[in-house]
Structure formats: structure tokens, C-alpha cells
User: Which sequence fits this backbone?
């Protein structure tokens, strides 16, 4: 299990394919960070934030227009009360964690991420409930065994306590396998014009100097599932290729780059091309590496790349 990290306000946990959809809630409690809310919750559907609460505003608020329009005011009132209760629980839990690790001052972070995934083609569902402390895994619920996994000794006390609470375990199982899936499907229907859309990418070949790697940059696409790969003479090419992360643009679309290190002599004597494939878009987008296709700032001493950058258990589950 890979640990989830702080600053999840800009989290991008997107489905890998158009068939896979997800509903996640991320709770973050902090200690020793005066300029950051002590408690924050974010709800996300397919990686898109739909709801937000923090200990300063103390109000559950929509993060999508379609969410605001789809649900009644009582929805936000109910989830506000839930988050207020969770805020108190998480503030207490971070104090308990600090005691377990023999810590007093300093910056500390306690997190919970729970939710579900649904493959609308295969019909397969999956639920998850994970806790982290100071950037490391702390606890995780195993739906197959209905037991909690404690990767660190400090979490064993909590694991044993939660494993013996069968009523809570059955409640968690029902939420992760049924209630969560039902709400995920509702949210997908509410926001289908946004969440189910497909937008093709704009693809460019970029290079800072003649000796720099050639960057294939795809941007403006949706959903986030994408492959940016290189071919040499019609065959997949992986040598001297570096793949960048998928980043979110300010307008909700995505961008991704792949960097190829190759000499001008090599690409002029062979056919190199970048192939971009976006989930849900049948067409492949291909750029052949030729001198006329490369966008560059050669001769500019103040070179700027065109490639953009990303401009406790006791938790009551959200609706």
C-alpha cells in the first residue's frame, strides 16, 4: 500500500480508464502548522473535488456547480455536522498518535482516505479505508479478511481494538461495498456532462537547445488516462525515454510529457514519432520528429520551456 501524503487539496487520484470510477474522501488533521487549518476534508469523484470542509470555515461546501445544483441544502447541513464531529475526533486522534510515537512539539499530520471504485464495464467494485501518520502508512482495512493491517508497532493497539468491534466492521463493510458505490453512481449521474466527457489533447514537440532532450507535450485532454510514448521506425521505443507525471490544468483538463534523449543525427536518419493515446478518445495523436515540428527557443539566452506545471477510525462516512 502506497502512503498518501499531505496537501491533498490538489490531490489528483484519477481513474486509470474511462470504465473505472472512484469516490474518495480524504481527511487531514495537522498539528504545529499555524498557517494551515487543523482539519480539512475533501471529497473527490474521479479525482475531481466535489466537497470541502475545514476547521476555519466550519461548513461543508460544494466544489462543483453540478454538485451545488443536484443536491438539496439539507445535504450540506448534514455533512457539515458530520465534519464538525470528525474534526473533534481527528484532533484527539493526532494527540494520541503523538503520544504513541513519544512526540511533543513539531509538525505532525494524521490522515484518513476512504472510498470505493467501480468498473462500469466489468461491474467490479473495490473499497478501501487507509490511515497515515507523518507521511507513513499507519492502518489499513482489509475487506477480504475484515481485519485491520498495522504496518507499524504504534498502530497495533488500535488494530486490536478495532478488530474486536465486529459491529463497526460490518458497518464499514456495508458502506465500502454498497453505500459508497450507490453514492458514486449518483454523483456520476449528477455530473455526467463533466465527469463523462472526453476532450482530445493538443500535442507539441519541444526542445530548449539542439543538445537537449526532445519533449513530447500533450495538454488539454480529459479524462486523465493517457499514454505518451515514442516509436522508432514503427516500433515502440523505450531507450533513453523519461516519462513525466500527469498534471492537472487550471481548467480541469490534464497534461503530460515524455522526454526523449536522442542526437539530431539519430532522429534525422530514423523515423521517430510521439504517440498520444487518451482514454475514451479512439483517435491516436501522432507527431513525427522533424525539424519543422520542433518548437524551440534556440538562440534565446533566457530560455523558458513551454511545458507547463501544475498551475480516526470513528469517522462518520459522508453521503
Assistant:
Amino acid at each position: 500500500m502506497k502512503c498518501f501524503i499531505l496537501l491533498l487539496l490538489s490531490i489528483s487520484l484519477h481513474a486509470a480508464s474511462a470504465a473505472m470510477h472512484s469516490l474518495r474522501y480524504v481527511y487531514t488533521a495537522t498539528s504545529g502548522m499555524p498557517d494551515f487549518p487543523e482539519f480539512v476534508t475533501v471529497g473527490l469523484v474521479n479525482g475531481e473535488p466535489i466537497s470541502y470542509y475545514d476547521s476555519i470555515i466550519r461548513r461543508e461546501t460544494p466544489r462543483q456547480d453540478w454538485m451545488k445544483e443536484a443536491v438539496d441544502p439539507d445535504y450540506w447541513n448534514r455533512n457539515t455536522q458530520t465534519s464538525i464531529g470528525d474534526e473533534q475526533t481527528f484532533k484527539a486522534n493526532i494527540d494520541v498518535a503523538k503520544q504513541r510515537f513519544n512526540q511533543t512539539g513539531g509538525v505532525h499530520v494524521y490522515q484518513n482516505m476512504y472510498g470505493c471504485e467501480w468498473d462500469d464495464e466489468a461491474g467490479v467494485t473495490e473499497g478501501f479505508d487507509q490511515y497515515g501518520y507523518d507521511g507513513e502508512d499507519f492502518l489499513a482495512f482489509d475487506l477480504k479478511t475484515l481485519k485491520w493491517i498495522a504496518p507499524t508497532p504504534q498502530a497495533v493497539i488500535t488494530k486490536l481494538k478495532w478488530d474486536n468491534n465486529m459491529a463497526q466492521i460490518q458497518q464499514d463493510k456495508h458502506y465500502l461495498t454498497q453505500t459508497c458505490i450507490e453514492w458514486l453512481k449518483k454523483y456520476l449521474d449528477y455530473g455526467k456532462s463533466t465527469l463523462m466527457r472526453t476532450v482530445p489533447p493538443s500535442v507539441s514537440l519541444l526542445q530548449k537547445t539542439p543538445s537537449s532532450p526532445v519533449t513530447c507535450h500533450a495538454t488539454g485532454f480529459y479524462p486523465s488516462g493517457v499514454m505518451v510514448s515514442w516509436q522508432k521506425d514503427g516500433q515502440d521505443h523505450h531507450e533513453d525515454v523519461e516519462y513525466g507525471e500527469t498534471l492537472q490544468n487550471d481548467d480541469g483538463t490534464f497534461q503530460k510529457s515524455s522526454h526523449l534523449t536522442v542526437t539530431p543525427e539519430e532522429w534525422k536518419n530514423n523515423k521517430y514519432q510521439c504517440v498520444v493515446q487518451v482514454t475514451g478518445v479512439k483517435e491516436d495523436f501522432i507527431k513525427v520528429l522533424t525539424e519543422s515540428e520542433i518548437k524551440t527557443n534556440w538562440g534565446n539566452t533566457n530560455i523558458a520551456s513551454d511545458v507547463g506545471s501544475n498551475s480516526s477510525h470513528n469517522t462518520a462516512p459522508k453521503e
Summary: Residues 183 and 319 are 7 Å apart (CA to CA). The domain at 8-195 is CATH 3.30.500.10 (Murine Class I Major Histocompatibility Complex, H2-DB; Chain A, domain 1).
